[in-house]
What does this fold into?
Amino acid sequence: MKVAKFGGSSVADAQQILKVVDIVKADPDRRIVVVSAPGKRFPDDIKVTDLLITLADAVIAGQPYESELATVVARYAEIHKALDLDAAIVTEIETDLRGRIADRSSNDAQFMDTIKASGEDNNAKIIAQVFANQGVQARYVDPKDAGMLLSDDFGNAHVLPDSFQNLASLRDEQNIVIFPGFFGYTRQGEVATFPRGGSDITGAILAAAVKADAYENFTDVDSVFAMDPRILGTAPAISLLTYREMRELSYAGFGVFHDEAIVPAVQAKVPICIKNTNRPAAPGTMIVAERRYEHGEVTGIASADGFSAIYLSKYMMNREVGFGRRLLQILEEEQLSFEHAPSGIDNMSVILRSAPFSAEKEQQVLDRIQTELETDDVTIEHGLSLIMIVGEGMRYAVGLAAKACAALADAGVNIEMINQGSSEISIMFGVKEVDRKHAVQALGHALLKID
Ligand code: ASP
It folds into this structure.
């Protein structure tokens, strides 16, 4: 059996939802269908999840929210009208949303998750009705009844181990299961969501739980490309990737698949296939445990903006036992997760995502480092991009870093940081955000031999 997950653009409107029904009908192995909330119908459109966040923000701020609520309901009403569904469903959705607002929890993060989760929940209910209207035996399954248990890190939850056993029984379900992505329930019965884009994670958990033969992830591109095609339009498609490669590429900006969704699939050894809802016959990209590779071959180059680096120096740091631990402990106490921590003899730097850094938080962290670690100097730099060159074939590659550095030098890009060796299959560069595009183009020409 297969688990098929359909992303936001695949369920954005009636026409797209009908494609989903056709795809599921075309293969009897597609028994579990995971759906996102309606995404963008056109480039400047707003995803329902973003509309819901605006709605929740208005409620939290005590501002009027009727027009925000009406905008969300209108998205479902449009689908309902185009597909001639049961008239009651739109009223049910509106009542559901008003109920979530009326039962507002005193914990804003938890309330936000309850509102965000309604996007997928109501879409799954609508889609189950579309399947039924098209003569397909399908049933909406509530993640609460199915036992999708998550931690209570609202907005950033992770799956609890019991979920896998709870969800395993969906394998025996006679109807096609329509399961909303992105959220589950805490042990206390509160709604909690995964990070943004988390319906991929739901699909992977279900695929692992029911021991699916494949996890198909339907999106709006034919395959994973070796580079962001918006940076180099001639970037080649990748037909086969390993889990490790996909995780590194997703981590560093390949938005096509959530990096956290790899883990359950790896553990259960379920192959993943990325496919296009708009061109289901295209072969897509397979992601598997092992593949043959050429020595020295680069598979893909990913890049992402939004990083900051804390640089600190202190003479004789290398002799001070526990320095690194104390530095990282400060970050832990400030609830900051670090991404990389390259170090020298008397220097150390820590790369973090910029998003959680308010000006206040930044000052607090720098002051603590200065006073508690008695550093000679501590500074912070924002506006950094990470570029990740990834490939199984890089394990034994000689001269690859030299080639990459030469390409960046020729392009006039200053390398702020380089991290090689922590992962056998990748090299990471830090550059200024303004240089990112240019740097990635230069690396694409040199290492992927793209014109
Ligand atoms: N709808 C959610 C988001 O936009 C989750 C998802 O689509 O995977 O982040």
